[in-house]
Amino acid sequence: MDYAGKVAWITGASSGIGASLARELAARGAHVVLSGRDAARLAEVAADCGETLILAFDVRDEAALADATAKAIAWKGGVDIAFANAGISQRSRALKTAMQVYRDILEVDLLAQIAFTQGLIGHMAERGSGALGFISSIAGKVGVPMRTAYSAAKFGLAGYADALRAELSINGVSVHTIYPGSVQTNVSRNALTADGAVRGRSDKAIDEGIPADVAARQMLDAIAEGTREIIVAEGMELAMGEARRTPEALFDQVAGMVAKGYMDKLEQQ
Question: Phi and psi at residue 226, in whole multiples of 5°?
């Protein structure tokens, strides 16, 4: 994939991985659409990205999402690449975590990202081209303590992406699931605690993790090469991700079912 001239839309683009993806995509010649809740912070990212479109809204607001989707598509006649990146992490024991924390994290990290994608897949399928990038986590490959809600959401996002990849394999749309390990962002600082309060401090592993710009380059290089499952991690986290890597042959097998009319047959039963 050549990113030059492509329109790339990124949720959670005001900081961290999202902001780094935006800057790297712009450096490679893409036109970027930046979304998040904070318009001022999005504007700071946009200042590094040349011609951009800022669409500030809460990903949980479906009416605002629908309006933003129409604007993103109309901006330059289509969206070529979309990154479902917005998310909230967690740092709390399951035994102490309020149920509302689970609801809040699943709403942002899973359901809102599905809604974002559902608004675009018809457009991409009709055009016969496009790429979708889902930012899961190593915690979406291996259940990690103190992150039960986060792992549930990220496992769910990966499952949605895998099933969607098979369905869209006949429409010319590629799906890439990305599993970052510790990346230098505010993910720990912004994580929710047992009662839903923001943690307010970072982790040593995150502070010593992969720089966000380096992680973004690795992600975009892998997508450009057509890699479907992308693990961006080091050390023990890399080993954990690789231990749970999905065999490429399995992706091909499921896509082959779709090519042979599996969905049509199921609908007719």
Answer: 85, 15
What does 17-43 look like in DSSP terms, one character per residue? HHHHHHHHHHHTT-EEEEEES-HHHHH
Q: Is residue 1 part of a domain?
A: no
Number of domains in the chain: 1
Sheet bearing 173-180, strands edge to edge: 52-56, 31-36, 7-10, 81-84, 130-135, 173-180, 229-232
Q: What confidence score (pLDDT) does residue 269 get? A: 87
* Residue 2 placed within a domain: no
CATH number for 175 = 3.40.50.720
Helix (H) or strand (E) run with residue 205 in it: helix 204-207
Active site residue 262: no
pLDDT tens digits, 47-67: 999 999 999 999 999 999 999
Tell me the C-alpha distance between 205 and 136, whole Å: 18
Let me know if residue 158 belongs to a domain: yes
Closest C-alpha to 132, from 102, 174, 190: 174
> Of the residues 3, 102, 150, 160, which is catalytic?
150
Q: Taking the CB of residue 128, how many other CB atoms lie within 10 A of it?
A: 9
**Which residue's structure tokens are 């709390």?**
92
Residue-range definition of the domain harbouring residue 179 = 7-268
Residue 38 forms part of a structural domain = yes
The CA distance from 102 to 219, in Å, is: 28
Read off the pTM: 0.96
Please give, one letter per residue, the 3-state secondary structure of 110-162. Answer: HHHHHHHHHHHHHHHHHHCCEEEEEECCHHHCCCCCCCHHHHHHHHHHHHHHH
CB of 64 closer than 8 Å to CB of 58: yes
